[in-house]
Amino acid sequence: xxxxxxxxxxxxxxxxxxxxxxxxxxxxxxxxxxxxxxxxxxxxxxxxxxxxxxxxxxxxxxxxxxxxxxxxxxxxxxxxxxxxxxxxxxxxxxxxxxxxxxxxxxxxxxxxxxxxxxxxxxxxxxxxxxxxxxxxxxxxxxxxxxxxxxxxxxxxxxxxxxxxxxxxxxxxxxxxxxxxxxxxxxxxxxxxxxxxxxxxxxxxxxxxxxxxxxxxxxxxxxxxxxxxxxxxxxxxxxxxxxxxxxxxxxxxxxxxxxxxxxxxxxxxxxxxxxxxxxxxxxxxxxxxxxxxxxxxxxxxxxxxxxxxxxxxxxxxxxxxxxxxxxxxxxxxxxxxxxxxxxxxxxxxxxxxxxxxxxxxxxxxxxxxxxxxxxxxxxxxxxxxxxxxxxxxxxxxxxxxxxxxxxxxxxxxxxxxxxxxxxxxxxxxxxxxxxxxxxxxxxxxxxxxxxxxxxxxxxxxxxxxxxxxxxxxxxxxxxxxxxxxxxxxxxxxxxxxxxxxxxxxxxxxxxxxxxxxxxxxxxxxxxxxxxxxxxxxxxxxxxxxxxxxxxxxxx
Length: 554
Known about the structure:
40% of the residues lie in helices and 17% in strands.
């Protein structure tokens, strides 16, 4: 695996970000927070970077300056970032990916390319207008999509096929042939528009499941640049991945990249087993694989947050006001907290049932413990999400009806967003955070919760073993969210954990998330990408267009 030991990572602290935290920046299923934010029609010249409060006022530290440096191996190359959606990296509200990549984009005069957010009602499939504008030293290039392409590529193949399958939910996948055609068509459109903007020495970093075949389309158009890909969501085991019609075409497309990055070692293992079993790939050692006349390198690069900046946000005015409000209102209660986007991967019904089990098994919590569950709106027009919302509202209502008292409601369930600047105060007021997804690529809420705590009196993190973060954050209380009664027992343990143990666990968790922060993530990936063998095989690339790939597969 490509790890900090092989790449010489440092323990620098990083930059704010919450890729994967939907509540404060509208994260898409890809765990890239900018993906539900439209690029403004014009980028104001006066826009300034910063998060506000204490974080914005702090002068840059030596550590933050070191973190901002580009990997030396990049040389004078320009960084080109490609993701489904694009945001102005100068703006604090742009989201986790923007914050993570802002330094590299600015330092190289880089470009960020993706969908504009515009849906052209009467547009033609496979066509879209290109928009190019400057955001300081960074070029923002975006492409419009017609309704048919958007519905098939984004709502269809990305979110009705790849999202459920990659989260192990084959029962929710809709394998419509029109979806994959739109998915291919949009990736081809993006490649066509991007090719004309590229320079020979650009280094290209493609993000997430929306754009898996982008490199293959670029290669077919003659692109010889180094291209890396990072998957922000989990990669499922071989047999689940193989349930996707034309799964071989999908994985074959990954071999057009020079480096493929995953969030967790488990994902890397699934990839290795798939390519060796299904694609007869040759394991060349050091996580290099040869198949389809291509060699790629793979690695696990767990994404992080900017610990210092998020901790500073907890001391800023908005967060302090939230903290004071919550501690005053709930002065006689112990708070359990869940914060995420409304999604079936997050295990929200199981969490509410575990809380109900807690009340049944441990009556001391009746009247004294409250669960605050924030589930921000997400894809409201899709059936699975409508059903989930109804289930949660019914569960919360039933629990409150059966257990509530005149002066106490067991569950405060809110289906709305919470401002990002107020979140650290909410985290800090909670005795226990419940981060219990059924499956998650990383889940940065867990890391934000730790960063926001008072080290003298920290809260306790209860974390699903099926979140990518669990591989790093072993000093959290790990649970199986499918085990309702077992989760209730762990929550009870968290509520009654002695102060010294809470402090010790928090100290170790904080050291962990500092070691592999957002700057470490960016730097190690780009160093690994820049270090891929320039003469390995990029000039021996097969034309992996959809038609050519299908013919090769037979």
